[in-house]
Amino acid sequence: MSTAINLIQAFDITAPGYKVTTELSKRIRSFEREFVNRNQDHVDFFSGYLLGVHRVVMRESDFNRWFDEITHVDDVELYRNIMRSPAFNPEWKVTGDAFNVLCMWLVHKYMTEGIGNKKIDKETMENVLLIFHYKILTSILSNSFKYLTNKETAEAVYAQMSKKYSLKKYGSWNALLRSRVEAIINPKSIHYDALEDFAHDKAIMYALSDSQGRIRGVVKLQYDILMRTLQNDRRIVTTTSTVEVDGEELIKDLQRSVPMYKDYLSSVIGNKASFVKDDIIRIIVSAMPLMSPIMLRDTLNYFSDHYLDDIVKADKIVEKIIVHAFTVLKSEHKSYMRSIDPPFIILKLRGSYTSARSTDQNLLDLRKEIDEIIIEATHKRSPAAIASVRTGFLLYCVVRAIAKNTY
Questions:
Q1: Contact 296/392 with Cβ under 8 angstroms?
Q2: Is the dihedral of CA 279, 284, 290, 292 positive or negative?
Q3: Burial, 365: exposed, middle or buried (Cβ in 10 Å; 0-12, 13-18, 19+)?
Q4: 289 and 192 within one domain
Q5: Which long-range contacts (CB under 8 A, 24 or more apart) does 144-148 make?
């Protein structure tokens, strides 16, 4: 039976006299950059904020390269030696993983020895911890998303998140992960002392499990919203059965022009009984479960009541709504040749309306104009409430226009 040893001894045995160098820092930085920029999925995921849309994976070849080409540490021998720690449990996938433990040890080496350049030492510690977080995050995503979700649904999920969600606070996975690694090596961190002295195995194991738990929590919060959103999307399919749309006719109109739908919508707005339909409100509420139905109805009523106050301005808003919607749908139809029906239209446009990175000036102008209408109609100023009602209002107008044959 092997004699029990602690983790620092496991590394002394596995990699005696190991020195961190400038060359090692360069290899670590190269590994981190190459992983993030491996392909378009990786680039889009880490620079973005969506969950379940992009496939990001750490491959077996990455693990082999990390040990053989980057760190030059024997993973088999390291695993055999860390198994001798009384704190080790082979059933613990995170704290008992040689890759993960090696990352923490490298942070310890740069924290206590370094290469004589504090700036490079700090950057290397951050890169090592980023790589560790890439590993645990991609593992969580792989287990959670055997099948990817569509971008529109993921955008709707993000739109429902408040600033209390760390991903919403930082705006991208890359920014969130960088904030996490900076917090870990901050001298005020609860893990700083454990990483600096590397003398208490349980403390190192806790640093690993705590880091994984925090990232898992971020994913779980967003995943729970995603599941609710998908359920609501299924409800949309049922709810929209009350609205009839001639898909073939609409496709032809997408290819021709939009005046017919714009003129129709303009013709009914001034008559509240014709414009505001309970069936369509129910459809929009299904698509926007966190939106206030009362605020939506108040906004629709206000828009109808004041339509004639400035008919030129109101008609321009209507035209922008239809032009933007038809542009989005036309692009989608050309790209995927999918049938156009109410559920598809609602889900596609909802993603477009809620996208935080839209550069469409037409849509940006609409957001500002609709927000002003909502504030005047409801006297509410909560940014989250206004944003959700704005999306609901835009969806309502499009559905009301395309449902002209129903009413």
A1: yes
A2: negative
A3: middle
A4: no
A5: 144/52, 144/219, 144/223, 145/52, 148/52, 148/53, 148/54, 148/55
- Mean pLDDT (the chain) is 88
Sorted by sequence, the CB contacts under 8 Å of residue 72 that are 6+ apart come out as 15
Listing DSSP states for 263-304 in one string gives: HHHHHHHTSHHHH--HHHHHHHHHH-TTS-HHHHHHHHHHHH
- The residue type of 92 is W
Same-domain check for residues 14 and 106:
yes
CB 67, CB 25: distance < 8 Å = no
Residue pointed to by tokens 């749908």: 329
Residue 238 maps to a domain: no
Do 140 and 101 have their domain in common?
yes
Read off the pTM: 0.71
Token pair in block for residue 143: 């287990």
- How many domains in the chain? 2
Q: Kindly tell me if the per-residue pLDDT of 104 is higher than 50.
A: yes
More confident residue, 256 or 52: 52
Task: Say if 126 falls within a structural domain.
Answer: yes
Helix (H, G, I), strand (E, B) or coil at 162: coil
Q: Are residues 117 and 21 in the same domain?
A: yes
Say if 1 falls within a structural domain: no
Pair (282, 346) in one structural domain: yes
Among 206, 233, 260, the domain-final residue is 233
DSSP code, position 71: I
For residue 165, give every residue at least 6 positions away whose Cβ sits within 8 Å of its Cβ, in sequence order, or none.
218, 221, 222
Show which of 233, 252, 286 is a domain's final residue: 233
Structural domain harbouring 33: 7-233
Quote the CA–CA distance of 162 and 224 in Å, as a whole number.
14
Single-letter amino acid, residue 356: A
